[in-house]
Amino acid sequence: xxxxxxxRSQLADAVQSISANISEGYGRRSINEYIQFxxxxxxxxxxxxxxxxxxxxxxxxxxxxxxxxxxxxYEVENRLLRLIDKLEQKREDEDWIARIAxxxxxxxxxxxxxxxxTPTLRTHx
Length: 125
Description:
125 residues, mainly alpha, de novo design (two linked rop proteins), elongated
């Protein structure tokens, strides 16, 4: 049996793209962009499932391994959807900072190279 390295590589790239989109969105420091990148992550997650189905169809992965992947895919998808839902609700309620810290003033600081703090996330209209 010939190994489909291209399909395997595409699967690996899609999987890596999930976490990259989550971290890039968070790094943008805007709740709107964070949510947007979480949706990109969902798209990458769907792509991983498509690639896994392809590998299963050409018998590059076993049914048991595909089942494990399917369960993990389902869990990650649902966690992302819950996170998006909660963030969209916080955006609507204008309550984003309340979840980050008890005291919002704690995060209103000037960044410095010596001390790391989580900057305030702002909503872009």
